[in-house]
Structures are given as C-alpha cells and as structure tokens.
Amino acid sequence: MKKIAIVGYAQNKILASAGALNEVELIMPVVHKIFNNLGISQKEIDFTCSGSCDYLQGAAFAFVEGLSAIQTNPPIKESHVEMDAAWALYESMLKIQMGDADTALIYGFGKSSPGDLDSIISLQMDPYYISPLWPDRISLAALQAQVLLNNNIINKDEIMHAVIESRNNGLNNLNALIQTSITEDEYQKDLVLSSPLRALDCPPISDGASAMIIASEDKAFNFSSNPIWIKGIDHRIETSNLGARNLSSSPSIKSAMKSLDIENTAFDIAEIHTQFSHEYPFLRKLLNLENVPINLSGGPLVGNVMMAAGLDAIGKVYEQLSTNSYKRGLAHATSGPCLQHNMLVSLEKNS
Amino acid sequence: MTKQETLKLQAPFELSYDYKRSSGPIMSKFFEALSKKKILGTKNASGKVFVPAAEFDPNTNEALTEFVEVESTGIIESWSWVANPKPHHLIQSAFAFVLIKFNGADTSMLHMVSECAESDLAKGVKVKPVWSSDPKEMILDIKYFVLEK
After folding, report:
1. Which domains does chain A have, with CATH numbers?
2. Which of A66, A156, A200, A272 has the fewest CB within 10 Å, making it most exposed?
C-alpha cells in the first residue's frame, strides 16, 4: 500500500445563510485559498473529487455545476460522491492506491438555508417503509437518543455537557457559525423539538464549503514539509432497515476500529462528526476517547455544513496535528439516519 | 394584449414523480396484506422474523422468502415526542414517532403514535393500529397507532 498524506485543508467561514451566493461562489474561494496556501494550481492535481447532495439544490446532477468553480480545461479526471466529502476523500485514496493518480483535490459543499432540511432529508430515506411517514432528521436522531438513555449508555447530563462544551470550544474557532457559550440554565429552558432532543441539541442550518489536498509519498513533500499521514481509513455501513438495527451500539464503528487496529491506540486528539449532542458521549465511550480532547473546533453543533462537515472533522484533526504538538489523531465522519454509515480516519505526523 | 404575446409557447411545470413505483415481490405482498389489515413478516433460516417484511437479512445476507403473519398489535421500542409538528408532518397535533415491535416479530417498524400524552409513552407500552378507511397498499394504510387499553 502507498503511503498517502494530507498536505492542505481550507474551509470557508460557515454561514447561516449565504444568501444569493450560489454553490460555485461558495466553492471557488475555498479552492483558490487552498491553491494559494500551497502555491499550486489545478495543473498539479491528478484527480478531483467532490461531495454534495443534489437534494439540497433540488435538481438532478446539480453537482456538475460545481465544477465551474475549478479549471477543467485542459480536461481533468474528476468524480463526485452523493455523500459527505469525507467519502470523496475515500474515493480519492482508492484512486491513488490504484496508481491512477498521485495527487487529489477534494471539496465538499452544501447550502441548507434555501430549503427545509427536515423535509428534504425525509425524502432521502427508504421510499417504501420510511419516507411516506415524513420522519424528520431530528425525530430519527431522537429515537436513538431515547434508546441510549433507556439503556443507561448515556445520561441527560452528558448530553447537556456535550452542548456546553461544544459551544465553549467553538469560541476558539474563527470559522464556526455559532460563537456564543450557553449556561446550564439556558439549556434547561430550551425548547424540546423531538423528545428528548432540544433545539440546542441539534446542529444549526449551515452554508459553506471546504477543500482538501492529498498526495502520495512520492509527491507529498513537493507540497508540504510537514505532511500528515493517513495511517488508516475505514468505512462501514449498517442496514437501511432502521428497525432491524441495534441502536444501542454501533457495529459499524466497532468493525471499523477493529479493521484499523485502533482499539488500544492512544490518540492525542479527535474530531467526531456528532451532529446531535447525544451522539457525542455515545461515540466518546465507544471509541475509547474518554481522556482525549474531542472536537476542539466545537464540532457540528457550532456549524454543520451538509456534505462538508465530515471532511471538516478530518481537516480539523489535520490542522491540529500540523500546528500543535499532537502526534496522533482520529477523525470520524457519518451519514444516514442514526449514525448508519461511519468512517474512521487515523492520522499521524512524523516525529 | 398584442398578437405576438398570444403566440408564446407555454407548458405546465409540475414537479412530481409521474410514475408508479413497483414495490417488488416481497414488499408488495406486505402491502397487499396491509391493505387487508394483516401484518406480514419474513423469516430467516434460524427463525428470526423481520417486520415489516424484509427482502434480506442484513446480518447473514440470506434472501428472505418465507412469509409469516404476526399480530397487528405490538410494543413501543423507542419514541420521540413531537410537541409542535412541522407543516410536512402528517399529524398536525402533538404525536410521537415510534419504533414498534409487533407481537411475533424480532425487528421494529417506524411509525407514529397519536391520541395520547407524552407521559403515556415508555418502552414496552402496548399499541394497536388505526387503519385507513381508504387503503392504498402503502405504509399509510395504517394511519397511526394508539395505545392499547
């Protein structure tokens, strides 16, 4: 297997509403930023892969328009995933392992503000048994929260502290959408949307874009003197049959941990794609991260760009390893209802 | 109005799925039975019963073809109380999304519970379906569930 490293990452400041800016106008600044940071252009990129969701734009093949943000002449090799851009990273890694590329540009973008995200996400579910019931994303997450509470895997105090901690960490993140802390009292008075979840337990509607560049060992040092190595990446999916899943655990995360052999790895830092507060204590325990600083960026609760937030978790670990003394980091990305898909990325820098 | 304007070509633009979706050999049987107020599941080789009827077992990957009828009553496995429904919700007064395990089934089905208070809901509470008076062989042939008293 080739060694592959992250050599650059950039993120737009997350907005509650990008207004009249279209997706191209969201992507272009962040792609230019990452190119300028590295002093390169599209010519140095062998493979380009994006992650987005056509449902958000309400048109089939809407992602194709996103390509207007990058230079595609002379023709480029490119692809797209109808998923979070963390999965575009996964595809790019496969492309490099296959020997088809040595460098890849990955970008993810999402604009949730124009539509009603709750009803849009309902339409992405199983069209036979689930979608006709119009379950919103918050109520589905709440079903898992209730299972975790009933089984004493997490408690309500841990959920509240996940929100408070996330808000406090977000104060240090210049790109965060929400940059205010909250008190226990404010949390307790907050409106319950779908029990047991309050509005504060849910991620804010966010618009934005992020980009990342990865390179094989042969090329990595051309871009950066301090590449951060992707030591392992693993992606597992659970069934779309929601009622057949064991929501009190996560077989997909457990098998990903086993496959990466990280059950006993001491990570210095982690960013986990926990969009709802109850997922934070649940995954912290499951991933053996109880003594590890998690989501120093504030995580999805202070800014959750659909289709970029998973890539952002990986990008934030990259930034922490690049700029701090941390050596080993873990990133997590998810997709689907109740943590159906899970990806783990283990990152490491040379000592 | 000038003559030129009346010659403009016009066509309606209605955003919709203008086709019917086939539900396949397994789910169509489930929906046919549902329209007759019966609940069908599928059974794997070791006897585990999936309700609603599943086409395959996600753990063993075996195709499921053996049907079994289960009771139309069941218990709540999990719930989420929606105090203020949004416009897209089908019930416009406070209700709950629930995972229901039918008596005789080993897996749960997502649906809704209405006509009760939030404090009535707990794991294990018994529920029964309220049937639609106009069945269409779809999941909403059960309008919602109510508490079985």
Report:
1. 4-115+205-223 (3.40.47.10)
2. A156
